[in-house]
Amino acid sequence: MTQTPNTPPPVKPKSKLKKFAGITLLILVLAAVAYYFVCGMTYSDGTRSGVLTKVSRKGYFFKTYEGEINIGGINQGEGTIIPLTIFKFSTNKKQIYDSLEVYQGRKVVLKYRQVIKNFVWQGETDYFVDHVSLVK
Asked: How far apart are CA 57 and CA 64, in angstroms?
């Protein structure tokens, strides 16, 4: 078949493999973006207070700052006691971690935010402390 100067060259149809690879790549990119937003989205926020019982820096590859406060149990009378509650949290701020080390064993108030799901390098828990203050 000869082409005249005014006719465009014939368009080759995309191979099925290229089309499948393109669609798969698009789906993976959209899934990664959605997962990123889910991990960064704040589900809830608030404060908790209790005695700071543990602060540590842990992890094999990604070092994170972890901690626990003892919120305490409640005596409801007539011998009924709700057992003590431990609140586990993470923080990614070195300044917060340094404050927590100083407040070890004392009563603190933690301002936190909860995410739906965390990335491995963010911490072990879904609760991230943004501010800590000492109860006087």
From this structure: 5
Greatest CA separation found in the chain? 100
Rg of the chain over Cα atoms, rounded to whole angstroms, equals 27
- Per the structure, the complete domain to which residue 91 belongs is given by 43-134
Confirm whether 104 is domain-assigned. yes
Domain of residue 87, CATH code: 2.40.50.140
Residue 12 domain-assigned (yes or no): no
Q: Where in 27-106 does DSSP place strands (E)?
A: 42-58, 64-75, 81-91
- Copy the structure tokens of residue 126: 């879904």
Answer whether residue 64 is part of any domain. Answer: yes
Q: Which two tokens stand for residue 17?
A: 């493999």
Q: What is the pLDDT along the chain (136 residues), one digit of tens a residue?
A: 555 667 666 666 668 788 888 888 999 998 888 777 776 777 788 888 889 988 988 878 888 889 999 887 666 666 666 677 888 998 888 899 998 999 988 899 999 988 877 766 667 788 888 889 888 8
Q: Which pair of tokens denotes residue 82?
A: 């709700």
DSSP 122: T
Query: For the chain, how many structural domains are there in total?
Result: 1
